[in-house]
Amino acid sequence: MSAPGWFNRGDGMHYWDGYRWDDQPPYVPPAVEKTTRIPNPFFLALAVLSGLVTMLPVLSFIGQPNVLAMLGVVWCGTWTAIWAYLAHRYR
Asked: How much of the chain, in percent, has pLDDT values that exceed 70?
């Protein structure tokens, strides 16, 4: 037997499914539309506000490098990254 597919049997195109002839093709589910997803506005606002707060220890660290300013940059930067991740995770 030949592989499944469309064949011309003389009286028009017919579909051979491997076992029998049929005039209808096999069911193919419709393609799912890709939708553009926007970030969660709540977490996005938290990420932006946290980013603004992170600039304070960054400026302090640039002006006079010390351990407390470095810890502030790490702490605030971590929360900024977490909020940004959650904004894209829960869309």
From this structure: 91
Q: How far is CA 44 from the centre of its chain?
A: 15
Burial of 14 (0-12, 13-18, 19+ CB in 10 A): middle
Place of tokens 């960054």: 58
Q: What is the pLDDT of residues 34-61, one digit of tens each?
A: 888 889 999 999 999 999 999 999 999 8
Which one-letter DSSP state was computed for residue 91? -
Whole-angstrom CA distances from 47 to 21, 37, 61, 86 are 60, 18, 21, 9
H or E segment to which residue 50 belongs: helix 41-63
**CA torsion sign, 72 to 73 to 77 to 80?**
positive
